[in-house]
Amino acid sequence: MKKIIWNGLKISLLALTLNSAFAAEEKTPTIPAWLYKELGASEAFINKQDYPQARKTLQKALGKAKKGSYAQAITLSSLASIYALDDQYKKAAKLLAAALATEQLTEQQQQEASLNLGQLYMGTEQYQKAINKLAPWLRQNPSPKNTEVRVLLANAYSQLKQYRKALPHIDYVIKHSRKPKESWLQFKLAISYHLKDYASAASVLRRLMARYPDKKEYWQQLATVYQQMQKMSAALSIQQLAYEKGFLRSEAEILHLVNLYLYKKQPYQAANLLDKELGKQSVKPTSAHWELLATAWANAREYKKAINALEKASALHPKGKLYLQLGRIHVEQELWQAAIKALHKALAKGGLNREGEAYILLGMSYYETQQISEAQRAFKKAQRYSKTKKSAGQWLNYINTPV
User: Fold this and answer.
1) Under a CB-based contact definition with an 8 Å cutoff, are residues 133 and 105 in contact?
2) What is the DSSP letter of 142?
3) Which phi-psi region, left, alpha or beta, contains residue 163 (left: φ > 0; alpha: ψ -120 to 50)?
4) 365, 336 contact by CB (below 8 A)
5) Cβ contacts of 62 within 8 Å, gap of 6 or more
6) What is the pLDDT of residue 234?
């Protein structure tokens, strides 16, 4: 933003100098012959980009100019332009403000100087001062063509976090343009975010997407905005399309879509997507990701696939809790041998918060496979834990009771 403003400044301030010094139509007030000569000399140095010498020439002229005169005002504004060309914007602003303070400039020159000073204040981050110059200028020059000034004023308000004051100006610019610049739409989007006006943000993003369909960030931002609005179906639709267009490539992006499917109770789509991306290794085959796949398959009632995924998750997990979970599933499915195998692995890995439950499930699995002594051994171990002591005792009594 600063570079654009300052480049514009250089052109407009130089134009002010030329218009003041050399324009034939400016007959009154007149520039003294000696100052006309000094302005011409400084302009020659400017053309050679010898700014120090150009400044030196005009500083000498400033010493000759009568205080409060038109000559002083022109010299100050011309000197300001040289400082601006040399990227010394604070000095330029100070000199241009002094030129305006003489109240000797013509109306047109005063308007140009006020605009340029507002731009200089923007470039030096003096935003309230910029507003104080640009807002009156716009009131006097309300043409729809003054778009860049309106954008500057909107930016000044935005920098001061006065977003509601910034909004009408950027709205005006967008409304009165056949094809608004992308940067203007982005600016409107930023203001909408700050005001938490997500409906407006979504509208701007849809417009940006229509014009720039290959820009991934707009797809992602729109999905996020829909989530903020609790429009999860719309967010999911956008993410689906973004995935189909090849925009979602990172692990985090793919997992976000998986979780959106799960949130919207579409576990089959979630599982298919995650299975595919694990196969491509776009998603790392970690224990957590295999566990997520197992959850998705289980919710989709694809139990064999869920068990397969959970076995992979269990093997990678440092503790035995996933093997315990796998053991529970096998018990529910009455796959007793598979349950025995999983539960032994759970106990071997250790770190279980519910170790007593593992022994109960193991005892049940042994009992169902007619391995009575092994079942008794497992239930006796379960009696060591307060939460499973009663249940284990009931099982032992049942086993030991003659038929």
Assistant:
1) no
2) -
3) alpha
4) yes
5) 72, 75, 76, 79
6) 97
Question: Which of 325, 248, 262 has its CA nearest to residue 292?
Answer: 262
First to last CA, the chain: 89
Q: What is the pLDDT of residues 230-271, one digit of tens each?
A: 999 999 999 999 999 999 999 999 999 999 999 999 999 999
- Residue 370 corresponds to which amino acid? Q
Backbone phi, then psi, for 19, in 5-degree steps?
-60, -40
Q: What is the Cα–Cα distance from 77 to 116, expressed in whole angstroms?
A: 10
Q: Please, is 280 exposed, middle or buried when counting C-beta atoms within 10 Å of its C-beta (0-12, 13-18, 19+)?
A: exposed
Kindly report whether the peptide bond that precedes residue 144 is cis, defined as omega within 30 degrees of 0.
no
Collect all residues with Cβ–Cβ distance below 8 Å to 351 and sequence separation of at least 6.
318, 319, 320, 321
The pair of structure tokens assigned to 361 is 């499930």
Sequential DSSP letters for 215-267: -HHHHHHHHHHHHHTT-HHHHHHHHHHHHHTT---SHHHHHHHHHHHHHTT-H
- Contact present, 39 and 21 (Cβ < 8 Å): yes
Residue type for position 140? Q
- Hey, what are 254's tokens? 């793919």
Residue 299 identity: N
Name residue, tokens 């200089």: 120
pTM for the full predicted model: 0.77
Collapsing DSSP states into helix, strand and coil, what is residue 146? coil
| Average pLDDT over every residue of 108-126 | 94
